[in-house]
């Protein structure tokens, strides 16, 4: 028995490539969008965890070995829990520690880490004029409004986290030294 082949229609030659391109481009855009938003959620969750750990460390009024002041030890604990996203001196600059009076909410300058005061640990406070204390994440996929010539968004997302709690009595009754 002889098989009879049907000749291919010459007008349909590029349809497969065109259909693949029409499916591939939206699929890749969707994939990059999912990855982008997943990374933002991961960073936000990581930073919230890190400031909570830093706050829990701060309220116990302890110091780490090798640190002479309380705020530097707190910042080090926070930095260690950010999975390397806040590395080095730049990373430390993006972590802020403040103390407040419990009822007045006033920022304290002396006797900051006294028992009963409120300690607030923040990642990316964004208070400096040059914005060097902000942690920003540039989008991988250009799906946001406002693109530059490279296709990336011109406005990266600032990611911040904050946690606060009341300081416990210090061990031995003497709080650790505060940073100048």
Helix tally? Answer: 3
Radius of gyration: 26 Å
Low-confidence stretches: none
Oligomer class: single chain
Average pLDDT = 82
Strand order across the biggest sheet? Answer: 1-2-5
N-to-C order of helices and strands? HHHEEEEE
Defining traits:
180 residues; 34% helix; rod-shaped
Briefly summarize what is shown.
The chain has 180 residues and is an alpha+beta fold.
What does this structure look like?
With 180 residues, the protein is α+β, with helices and mostly antiparallel strands. The chain has a domain at 18-127 and 160-173. 34% of the residues lie in helices and 12% in strands. It contains three helices and five strands. The chain has helices at residues 15-59, 70-80, 88-93; strands spanning 95-100, 118-123, 136-137, 157-158, 161-166. The strands form two sheets. Strands 1-2-5 form a three-stranded antiparallel sheet. A two-stranded antiparallel ribbon has the order 3-4. Helix 1 runs antiparallel to helix 2 (70-80). The longest helix has 45 residues, at 15-59. The radius of gyration is 26 Å and the shape is rod-shaped. 20% of the residues are buried. The model has no long low-confidence stretch (mean pLDDT 82).
Reconstruct the topology from this structure:
Blueprint: H1 15-59, H2 70-80, H3 88-93, E1 95-100, E2 118-123, E3 136-137, E4 157-158, E5 161-166
Antiparallel strand pairs: 1-2, 2-5, 3-4
